[in-house]
Each structure stands twice: as C-alpha cells, then as structure tokens.
Design brief:
15 helices, Arc Repressor Mutant, subunit A, 2 domains, single chain
Length: about 250
Amino acid sequence: MAPNIATGIGPLQASGADTGPERARSAPGPGLPASSASRHRLTVAPPRGKLCRLMAEDIKSSQQRILAAAKQLFLTKGFNGSNLRDIAREAKVSMGGIYHHFASKEEIYDSLLRASDIATDMLLILPLVRAPEFPQNLAQVGGAIAGIVRKHRDTFKLFYIDVLEFEGRHVKPLIQQFHNSFRDLSDGLLAHRKDDLIDMNPALLVRAMIALFLHSHLEAVMLEQPLADSLGMSDEDITASMAELLLRGVLRRS
C-alpha cells in the first residue's frame, strides 16, 4: 500500500495494523527521517482562504486593541502623558505590532479622531431644521444635540485634549468640515421660513442655535456638573427654556 501523502502515515499505520502506541506515533513515512516524520504529520495547514481570513481577523483585532488601549490612556493621562510602550502593554501587543499598524503615537491619536462618526451624527439634525415646523421644534433640535454629546462624550474629550496639546491641529479640519456643511445648506434649510425669521445671515443663525445647545450640554457632560442638578429642573425643561429663549429673545414683549 502506498503512503498517505496528506498525512505522512506509512503503510502499516494506514492499514490499521497493531504496531503498538509508541511505534504508531513515531513510525516515519517512506523517505522521511524519524526526527521529522512526527512534525510532518502534526503540521496540518488550514486551507489557504481560511488562513488568509484568520490572518486578516487577527490584524484587525490587534489594531482595534491598540486603538482601544490608546484611547483609554489618552483620556486618563493625556496625549503627552502616555507613551507607546504603555499602549503596547495595555493592548497586549509588541512594539513591532504597534509599528505594523501606526507610524507614531500621533498617528494613533489622529486615527481615533477620524474613526468617530460624530460629524455624521451631527448632520442627522438637518431633517429637524428642514422640517415645516422649524423653528418651533427647536426643543427637539436641542434634545438631539444633547443625545449626541452624551453618546460622543469621549470623542469630545479628545477634542479638548487636541486643543490643549496640539492647539487644535487635528480637530480643526473636522470642525471646519462640519461648519462648511451647515454653511452650504443653511440657505436652503431656512428658505421655507425666510418671511418669519429675523434678517440675519442664515449660516450664522443656524450656527448660533446649535452652539447654544451644544456648549451648554458639553459643559455639563465634560465637567460632570449637570445643569439640571443646580437649577432643580429636568433636562427636558432646560432644553425647552433654551428653545424659548432662541425663539422669543430676552426682552419681554408687550
């Protein structure tokens, strides 16, 4: 009987002959030294497609661990207070594993900022501004912004770190992209209510409305000092009051 090439099992083993447990484990196939036969039998490579898939999943997993570890360190120690060895240790990868994915610590930081979908989420308030009931629905706009701030709390913290440690070098392009989107859309967004709104640049009007809600909620979330606690009001009531301020102004009307 010819040897089984796929497994390296010799004729006696393939026939099922009783050669004894030790001999069955160590008998080499034809033409193979005894020292290499066991290695030949035990090394069974997965199919090529599966191997490539497993390698891709491992690369993706290590990259995600690096980003997750770096994010946690940046949030707790700041960018300058963290180093690549700390990131590698927390991510359970080698320094070579770090450099396989990222050229530097700053590239990791930039990747974290760009991986956020915060700009996409902010654009989700556009339908509220475009709605026929706008601006009477400003409380809904404020509520949507509050939800975005809570969801992206860590990303906003990274923004602040960028402002403090990089003078906003990484975050400026992202913020400018967001402002450009609203500036380009503002005329069309407010066109259906132009006869009812004050005579003001539409882009400035939209930006001022968003800024009031955004920065009020950012302060509460970043400093962990909810405005609702200090005022004895619910978040919904505060948002509604802000909306009323935007709609009516601060002067009492006769």
